Amino acid sequence: MVQQHGHLHAKTLTLMNHQALAYRDMDKTEDALQLYREVHDGCKQTLGMQHPYTLASISNLANILFEMDRLDEARPLLEEALERQSEMLGSRHLDTLQTAHSLALLLEEQGEFDKAEPLYIRAYEGQKSSLGPKNPTVLQTAVNLAGLKQAP
């Protein structure tokens, strides 16, 4: 694919993103991180910062850093992704809501419960409205919100 389309072609970047996901599933987090960085850089260069794929690449990069417990690196990326997705996709778009949920999880992990709660509520209300109250994603967000409310 790289020889046919080039390293920065959208199809190549998509395949690289899938490979990063496969590495992630195999617990090869360093390999996944490297590919997610390459995908993000390629998306920025090829598609621009406002493109939905570039916005998704920011979230993917942030989420792998979060999984690696590199919260201080993940947080500004999630904050940037949430801001850009809200502007470009809208505050009720499912990608935006998923990023709000991810940022809430990170903030909760950092002990910033007062900042996490409104993000959980935003994600829950938006997901419930779009997906219905019995959707597994909605239910997981509700569980996380309920757990936060029981935190000390």
UniProtKB/TrEMBL annotation:
InterPro entries: Kinesin_light (IPR002151), TPR-like_helical_dom_sf (IPR011990), TPR_rpt (IPR019734). Keywords: Coiled coil, Cytoplasm, Cytoskeleton, Microtubule, Motor protein, Repeat, TPR repeat. GO terms for biological process: microtubule-based movement. It comes from Symbiodinium natans. The keyword Coiled coil applies. Pfam families: TPR_10, TPR_12. This is Klc protein. Belongs to the kinesin light chain family. GO terms for cellular component: cytoplasm; kinesin complex; microtubule. Its main location: cytoplasm. It is found in: Cytoplasm, Cytoskeleton. GO terms for molecular function: kinesin binding.
